[in-house]
Design goal:
2 copies of one chain form a homodimer. The first copy, chain A, folds into 2 domains: 169 residues, Medium-chain alcohol dehydrogenases, catalytic domain (Quinone Oxidoreductase, Chain A, domain 1), CATH 3.90.180; 150 residues, Rossmann fold. By secondary structure, the first copy, chain A, is of the alpha/beta class. In chain A, helix 2 crosses helix 3 and helix 2 packs across helix 8. In chain A, the strands form 3 sheets. In chain A, strands 3, 4, 5, 6, 7, 14 and 15 form a 7-stranded mixed β-sheet that branches. The first copy, chain A, has a 6-stranded parallel β-sheet with strand order 10-9-8-11-12-13. In chain A, helix 3 links the parallel strand 8 and strand 9. Helices cover 23% and strands 27% of the residues of chain A. The first copy, chain A, is built from 9 helices and 15 strands. At the A-B interface, helix 7 and strand 13 of A face helix 7 and strand 13 of B. Chains A, B: One of its GO terms (molecular function) is oxidoreductase activity, acting on the CH-CH group of donors, NAD or NADP as acceptor. Chains A, B: Pfam families: ADH_N_2 (PF16884), ADH_zinc_N (PF00107). Chains A, B: This is Enoyl reductase (ER) domain-containing protein. Chains A, B: Keywords: Oxidoreductase.
């Protein structure tokens, strides 16, 4: 019975071992053999479902928040012993949902495993395959790209000629923010943690200037050097001492879009921010946001970014590790800045 | 020559002795005899000017910023050896400006002295005397009232039924914010530093609840108790640990109007704020503001507040000390919360 033999596959999973209160380490996750999985949606389930073969998985800093036993967030924690969840791109193997058929390529929330049964298929998006690499749907055309898009246009209220600073600027979100700001006619400076990334910012992404924050003994002075007239817009990805230095360098009526504070993810007692008084004297607006509040803008985002990409006006750099087993190290690397560009894990190419 | 004898008066001044880097103390200021002053605008000056007899002087926390040798603020520092400057209400003694005549009552920036020569009379506002006490033009109908008005309506975007928290709630600004929020249909809680002030908030200003922050070992728990569903709007007057506690108690899409951080005025190294990550998870907007950016709303403010006051819908409490010599102690008292209500100094009643 050839068909039945093919209809079963081995399913490996990356599971969370237990909740943590510090920066994630590889040993907080474990690759386990999930046994055999039938390659079809089980009968008698609660409703229509989709079985996907995972191709690409996304490593994003927000996922660290789901490793804490903290139920008061906008997203619930992971379950210890169960697979890590995150955005992914996969191929539909079987579907009992009328919107999806075997062979469709989809993106959405999935598990860190070879095959995932998606019981809420309405959250999946069907991907029209094109000249755009599939994995880009986790970055340029996925959540990070959309975060950059709504953060820059909806939160920063940018004006042509304004001075924009982006931290973690070569990351999944930062590289897009910087390029959008350039397209908008702004002067853009980025910070990153290695000279290689600084080069990338200037040579590949077209930032006007960039610096390695690890080589700056005085961040306030570094920003003063790059922004003698001050900063109009700060796209905040890191928190901590950089935010304090920025607060001293903002211009009157400046805006700070608070997208992430990756430097603070690992610490139980986050660094204190001391210069908030600048919010008053400079009349600064500081606003946190989450891209999912702006889903109505997603189609427009896809149109705009696809057009810019095809016109060669936006490029994207990703850092791809190969094999599900590389997931934990790739994820952990985000918090020490090991990744160069958007971190993804290739589980399978087809 | 009766007329000439009357046209000279003794002028006392409160001068700043030198710049400071800590909370102000009485001895940082000095009452000096400024000698005799001719009671008319000197001839040959640079342009039209107004000589006023100061009646009431305002003590405001922002003035502490002018005691530092720091020129990068929205307002320049005081000059050591020269009188303290601040808002005041005075009576015009002589004027070479066509808009003002002897006998007019005016409010505006003046000096801490018996008589001030105002060389920029265009910044003065003429006061129509009425049933409203003259000193209220330094509070309810002056800069603090206007700060409360623009801060609440323009920065907080309040909606009926929302949960509002005001710190330093019995102060010059806080008491008005709380009453405006009640008029807007919000649920309002205030914090203050003595039981007497807490009583005032509940009994006089009609706050729904109030607490003495000095008697709360855990501010986060205190706010949780008063706002089991969280805070929609925080009107920030104090900074420091209260802000950190508020950040943990905000609701999704909450707003923080940053008006002042009086707890931080005295310290060279301000307390660190550790919970800014909440800005992201709760999508909070935190915005600093200065009332002078909204002068176009001043006439509407005066109309609205005057009507509310006459209708008995807003009350105002001020703490008046008597005599120019009482100025330094009254000002210094702001930073330890000695004042009950808006602090003013009565230099002369007529």
């Amino acid at each position: 019975m050839e068909r039945e033999r093919q209809a079963v596959a081995r399913n490996r999973k990356v599971v969370l071992r237990g909740y943590i209160d510090r920066a994630p380490r590889e040993e907080d996750m474990e690759l386990v053999d999930g046994g055999a999985v039938e390659l079809r949606v089980p009968e008698g389930g609660g409703g229509p479902a989709v079985l996907v073969k995972n191709l690409y998985l996304s490593c994003d800093p927000y996922m660290r928040g789901r490793m804490r036993d903290f139920r008061n967030s906008y997203i619930p924690p992971f379950k210890p012993g169960s697979p890590i969840e995150g955005f992914g791109v996969g191929r539909v193997v079987d579907s009992t949902h009328p919107g999806f058929s075997a062979g469709d390529v989809v993106s959405g929330m999935t598990g860190w495993e070879d095959y995932s049964l998606i019981t809420k298929p309405e959250q999946l998006r069907k991907i029209q395959q094109s000249d755009i690499p599939l994995s880009y749907h986790l970055g340029l055309l996925g959540m990070p790209g959309f975060t950059a898009y709504v953060g820059f246009y909806e939160i920063c209220s940018p004006k042509k000629g304004e001075f924009v600073f982006v931290s973690a600027a070569s990351g999944a979100v930062g590289q897009i923010v910087g390029q959008l700001a350039k397209l908008h006619g702004c002067y853009v400076v980025g910070s990153a943690g290695t000279d290689q990334k600084v080069e990338l910012l200037k040579e590949k992404f077209g930032f006007d200037a960039a610096f390695n924050y690890k080589e700056e003994p005085d961040l306030t002075a570094a920003l003063k050097r790059h922004f003698p007239e001050g900063i109009d817009i700060y796209f905040e990805n890191v928190g901590g001492p950089m935010l304090d230095a920025v607060l001293l360098n903002m211009r009157v009526h400046g805006r700070i879009a608070v997208c992430g504070m990756v430097s603070q993810h690992g610490v139980t007692a986050p660094a204190g921010i001391h210069n908030l008084f600048s919010l008053i004297s400079k009349r600064i607006e500081m606003k946190g946001f989450i891209q999912s509040d702006y889903v109505h803008l997603f189609p427009q985002f896809v149109d705009d970014i696809t057009r810019h990409y095809r016109d060669g006006k936006i490029v994207y750099v990703e850092d791809m590790s190969v094999g599900l087993e590389s997931g934990p190290a790739s994820f952990v690397g985000l918090f020490s800045g090991k990744n160069v560009g958007k971190q993804v894990v290739c589980v399978s190419r087809d």
